[in-house]
Amino acid sequence: MPQYVAAIDQGTTSTRCIVFNRQGQIVSLAQKEHKQIYPQPGWVEHNPEEIWKNTLEVIALARIKGKLSVQDIAAVGITNQRETTVVWNRKTGKAYHNAIVWQDTRTGELVSQFAAADALGQDRFREKTGLPLATYFSGLKLKWLLDNVPGLRDDAERGDALFGNMDTFVVWNLTGGPQGGLHLTDVTNASRTQLMNLHTLGWDDSLLDAFTIPRAMLPQIRPSSQVYGTVTSEVLPGVPVAGILGDQQAALVGQTCYEPGMAKNTYGTGCFLLMNTGTKLRPSTCGLLTTVAYQFDNQPVHYALEGSVAIAGALVQWLRDNLGIIEKSTDIDALARSVDDNGGAYFVPAFSGLYAPHWKADARGVIAGLTRFVTKGHLARAVLEATAYQTVDVVRAMEQDAGVSLRSLRVDGGMVVNDLLMQFQSDMLNCPVIRPLITETTALGAAYAAGLAVGFWNGFDDLRQNWGIAKTYEPHMEEIQRSKLMRGWQKAIERSFGWEDQ
Ligand SMILES: Nc1ncnc2c1ncn2[C@@H]1O[C@H](COP(=O)(O)OP(=O)(O)O)[C@@H](O)[C@H]1O
Ligand SMILES: O=P(O)(O)OC[C@H](O)CO
């Protein structure tokens, strides 16, 4: 009898394969980074072929490391960086263009044009999709590809060109590729395209018309947990593909936030706070997204409010790769601890404009409050603090929208190993921050979705038993100090607005 479930986590910076046991513990893990391609300022691309090759490699490596036979694996779940847009040929499997990554800002002008054409402005499609017009979502990226890649629109209309986010691309390749690969996505990923109607949970003709997207290129929308088919590729032959979730929704599932009002924040490349709002759609009036949280087979959809922050851990990488101030991401801890505070410096990482709750495509990064006193230690501190302040802005918007105060926050993602950041986060939110035993919640959520579909786990109670606390950070900061820091942040963020002419 199979003892494990595998998850493929196709993230912004790397692809991971993680194998879990029934207790949700990691049995084996393999990871490979892929290249970040920056063809112009503001543009971010990935090579889809490199990502598919890495996917095969990490699956094979995870099996070798864990000494796992195919019979050991009950099912595989997929989770992915959301919104990143790829278009490929149904017959050859070749991509027409590099994938356009969620952080890419090339559609900034399209955002302005679409917003100017309607009195609702950036909120033109919000009622139907839960999303403001922004460079972030797939619809405009796909339009850009159709308008700029020669021959693509004709192929798309003929049904020869297929669109997908990374989940769709990976599943199509895993299940046969040009030889009958399944062209599908799940409802959480579809909710990030700005082409799906949140009320009907189907592709919406009026949205497709507005963005001039041929319906023939779109994948089928399916629940997040269901047996879709089996792997044909030799790395996991015959194993059921049984779960798909966008990575932030997967983390919500992995954190077992199944009750309305439960929330988690994932600190990776960006930072994404999701609160389960139950089976009713809850529109946001405070700059958050309304999105699909998950849909388990034959059960109603659950929705979430989301506060998306584009740049969090990516700022640590920028300090490492672009300025060379640190050698490894983990070095930021010691550098930030070499000083007592930020020395008056604030770093607003509006590299891709600002997402929630501001939605300013024209914002760009600023460092404010510099004096001759400021050292690289203060800058390191400002870098970490930027993630915490952005989270505070999102939490306050969430509290206003949901009409409740956050009592505690469950956290996960690559940055939560940083104690300084987590303590500062708790201080700035003035509420406990809870790090669970298993912080690989994204992959775990995808494994849960797949495992539930094949009966490996029987229900939410099995999953809740797997969740436990590793560490709780309690707030210690005086209110006067908290207010002073937030005032500084507020001034800094306003200075980032309106930088780019659009
Ligand atoms: N000790 C640390 N302190 C702060 N940030 C860190 C630390 N270790 C890793 N990071 C950041 O965490 C991010 C990686 O998190 P991860 O969840 O793997 O990201 P993703 O899933 O978006 O690829 C990187 O941006 C990295 O800079
Ligand atoms: O791959 P991550 O963890 O950076 O997550 C990216 C988000 O899904 C973008 O919406």
UniProtKB/TrEMBL annotation:
Q: What is this protein called?
A: Glycerol kinase
Please give the GO cellular component terms listed in this UniProt entry: cytosol
Q: Where is the Carbohydrate kinase FGGY N-terminal domain?
A: 4-254
Q: Which organism is it from?
A: Spirosoma montaniterrae
User: Do the record's keywords include Nuclease?
Assistant: no
Name the pathway: Polyol metabolism; glycerol degradation via glycerol kinase pathway; sn-glycerol 3-phosphate from glycerol: step 1/1
Residues noted as binding ATP in the record, renumbered to the chain: T12, T13, S14, T269, G313, Q317, G414
**Primary gene name:** glpK
Where sn-glycerol 3-phosphate binds, per the record, is at T12, R82, E83, Y136, D247
